[in-house]
Write a structure and sequence with these properties.
Blueprint lengths: L23 H12 L6 E5 L12 E2 L9 E2 L3 E4 L13 E5 L18 E5 L11 E4 L3 E4 L3 E4 L9 E2 L10 E3 L7 H9 L4 E5 L3 E7 L3 E2 L10 E2 L2 H11 L3 E8 L3 H14 L2 E5 L10 H4 L6 E6 L3 E2 L5 E5 L2 E6 L3 H19 L9 E5 L4 E2 L5 E10 L5 E5 L8 H4 L3 E5 L5 E2 L4 E6 L9 E5 L3 H12 L4 E5 L1 H10 L5 E4 L2 E2 L4 E2 L8 E15 L11 H10 L13 H10 L14 H9 L6 E4 H6 L3 E15 L6 H11 L1 H9 L3 E2 L1
Parallel strand pairs: 5-6, 13-16, 13-17, 14-15, 17-21, 19-24, 29-30
Antiparallel strand pairs: 1-12, 2-11, 3-10, 4-6, 4-7, 5-9, 8-9, 18-20, 20-21, 22-28, 23-27, 24-25, 24-26, 26-28, 31-36, 32-33, 34-35, 34-36, 34-37
The chain binds ligand LQZAQKY5 and molybdate ion (MOO).
Length: 650
């Protein structure tokens, strides 16, 4: 991170200056200044195709709606004068005219004094009539007549022509976004085609030799293209017409051809990846050849999103999003969406914010405005608590599972625990979960929560490790904290770690053991002790360890005694990472739990059972989510499912 940090001096067109970091506001302003004002292309489209588009011109009402005075009820069209004296004791007899006005029937006869004409709801009011009596307020008489025993006021049950929409008035203003209700108004006026702002066509290209499209098998060292599908969907969500052009290798010629082809058919081009300092980072080198003015900002004092690159080539915006998916999504929403929506003629999204407390200290990089993705849960007194979803910019779930984000200013190096701050919601419909589980994550947990979710309750599981979970439970921020903490002194699991106000609910046992690739003679068929001895005797045998504080680490240290074989300092933080290291041949052995070993198809030498239990926050035990969770945990169905997945219910 040795980029030039210059918040002021870089000028538009200064594209040789690689990664001159500008403030977020400066970057937004430069981008908008380079693109707007501009006239937006207009299309005339059938009503059915106008949904979600912005009107390009005002629409005037060509007719009155309703087009004629219309009855609102089934009954009789009358002259109110005739009934002025009518009452319970003073019935008035009206002779029926010889026509019935159904919907769509133009009346022929005049309603003369002393007469009435049967009329249906929606029928046009005949000449002479000025009110309608409901059929249930009349009594049929012989010889085509009715009796009425109540007075009516003039205009009763009539909708007058133009009372809904008046001919010549502005029905809808330019810029209105067309939804189903607008389509209804236009249809009522007989309008079949409207002028709309044409959806900007946005080409999407992912770059990187390592990318594979979903649906194809994953080569070694490859990852699935995540940004391509995300950006494509986000463009459609924000009024664009995306064309996904696939992923391109890090080859300058091929990529340049792809970018030129994209710009030939699109109004805008969004690339992702290859915008920082790697050898394969070349799209920004191609941009200057694609049209003036070229790059207008490359590098923004924003986290995530520092290497964002913005360009305009012959009037078309060209954007390179950072490769890390959370960085790509965040910068797209923060900086690209406002521009895309302006190009589509759509109003800016309005952000909803809520106040929440951060339960833990959040470190931040000085000099960059940092946006931290958070998950919202309810605290002990009903206040909102914002947990960082924090797996970093490279993780997809950081953004996808967040409810919103908070902002740490560029001049702060942290946000202290307990800070009350605004959280901008990613969707305005955030619902505080019915069940909050904070602690160590385990695949078995999904088995237990499945029936709870089926009941329609929302479950939020935040993975912060056993100790983090206990701290959250003590603060009353979760319902349950899943823990598997081994106390060396007492040789017990979990019980000795509880604080007042917490009760231990026994969960299930997970068999831990040594994993190795099947067929490895150093391990196959041996006792764990003999296998470790064989591993230690072979200097080329590489282990993978676990992080300090993990229950598994205590086991490993016991197995090793004073030995520190190669690989000891490789200390990943999860059971799955250990299995992956062994399965991929980056290590030869490690210790993990049986379900994970089985899923990775590794050899397994059982060691001992780990207790995975739940610290229940007593004050929250009566919540429906907690009750449903406990019912599931103790049900036969869940116990069987746990066993099937390789766990042993307590
Ligand atoms: N020496 C430095 N290294 C990095 C810096 C830096 O300043 N100096 N900045 C870091 C920051 S911040 C970010 S953000 C990333 C972004 O880098 P790039 O935009 O060049 O992205 P890549 O290197 O191509 O990829 C990064 C990462 O993301 C994965 N990736 C890329 N595209 C996709 C995709 N379409 N779908 C899923 N994943 C994708 C890629 O495989 C890499 O793992 O750079 C830091 N490095
Ligand atoms: O800017 Mo990078 O996006 O911090 O991860």
């Amino acid at each position: 991170m040795s980029d030039v940090t210059d918040l002021s001096s870089s000028l538009p067109g200064d594209q040789d200056q690689f990664l001159t970091i500008l403030s977020r506001e400066e970057v937004l302003a430069r981008f908008e200044d380079a693109l707007f004002p501009r006239s937006l292309p207009v299309d005339t489209v059938p009503l059915a195709d106008a949904l979600s588009l912005a009107l390009a011109t005002d629409v005037m009402a060509p007719i009155d709606v309703p087009p004629f005075d219309r009855s609102n009820v089934d009954g009789f069209a009358v002259r109110s004068d005739d009934l002025a004296q009518a009452g319970e004791g003073a019935p008035v007899r009206l002779a029926l005219n010889n026509e019935t006005i159904a919907c769509g029937t133009a009346p022929k006869q005049i309603v003369q004094p002393g007469t009435a004409t049967p009329i249906a709801t929606g029928g046009p009011i005949p000449r002479g009539a000025d009110a309608v009596v409901m059929v249930e307020h009349t009594q049929p008489l012989a010889n085509d007549a009715i009796e009425v025993r109540r007075a009516v006021s003039p205009g009763q049950f009539i909708s007058y022509a133009g009372s809904d929409i008046a001919r010549g008035e502005v029905l809808m203003h330019k810029g209105t976004v067309i939804g189903s209700r607008e389509i209804g108004m236009l249809a009522a006026c007989g309008i079949a085609r409207v002028n709309v702002v044409r959806r900007p066509v946005v080409a999407v290209i992912s770059t990187g030799d390592e990318l594979e499209q979903p649906g194809t098998p994953l080569r070694p060292a490859a990852v699935y293209d995540t940004n391509g599908p995300i950006v494509t969907a986000a463009i459609a969500e924000n009024g664009g017409n995306p064309i996904f052009m696939g992923s391109y290798p890090d080859e300058e010629d091929v990529l340049e051809q792809g970018m030129r082809a994209a710009l030939a058919r699109a109004d805008m081009l969004v690339l992702s990846g290859g915008t920082s300092k790697g050898a394969g980072d070349l799209s920004h080198r191609i941009i200057p050849r694609l049209g003036a003015p070229g790059i207008i900002a490359h590098g923004v004092a924003l986290k995530p999103g520092k290497p964002l690159c913005l360009a305009v080539c012959d009037g078309k915006p060209v954007v390179i999003l950072p490769g890390f998916p959370t960085s790509a999504m965040f910068t797209f929403h923060d900086i690209i969406v406002p521009v895309l929506r302006r190009l589509a003629g759509l109003p800016l999204r309005t952000d909803t914010t809520v106040e929440a407390t951060v339960p833990v200290r959040i470190a931040s990089e000085l000099g960059r405005t940092e946006f931290v993705m958070v998950s919202l849960v309810e605290g002990a007194d009903g206040e909102l608590i914002a947990y960082p979803t924090g797996k970093g910019s490279g993780a997809i779930t950081s953004f996808a599972q967040a409810d919103g984000f908070l902002r740490i200013e560029a001049l702060a190096d942290q946000m202290p625990a307990g800070t009350k701050t605004d959280v901008t919601l990613l969707t305005p419909h955030v619902r505080v979960p019915d069940l909050v589980i904070v602690g160590s994550h385990c695949t078995g947990l999904d088995v237990v929560t499945a029936p709870v979710v089926r009941e329609g309750l929302s479950v939020r599981s935040i993975s912060v490790g056993s100790l983090g979970g206990l701290a959250a439970a003590r603060r009353g921020e979760c319902d349950l904290a899943p823990i598997h903490l081994f106390a060396d002194k007492t040789d017990t699991y979990n019980t000795s770690f509880l604080a007042p106000g917490l009760t231990l609910v026994p969960g299930y046992r997970r068999m831990q053991g040594i994993v190795f690739r099947p067929g490895d003679a150093r391990f196959e068929g041996k006792t764990p002790e003999a296998a470790v001895a064989a591993a230690l005797a072979d200097a080329s045998c590489l282990m993978v360890n676990r992080n300090q504080g993990a229950g598994t680490r205590i086991l490993i240290d016991r197995l090793l005694g004073d030995a520190r074989p190669d690989g000891y300092w490789n200390q990943p933080r999860s059971h799955n990472a250990v299995a992956a290291a062994v399965a991929q041949g980056r290590a030869d052995w490690g210790v993990t739990i049986a379900p994970v070993a089985n899923a990775a198809e590794l050899g397994f030498l059982p060691l001992t059972e780990e207790h995975y239990d739940f610290a229940l926050v007593d004050a929250r035990a009566k919540r429906p989510g907690v009750k449903a969770f406990l019912a599931s945990l103790h049900s036969d169905e869940t116990r069987k499912a746990l066993e099937k997945a390789g766990f042993r219910p307590a």
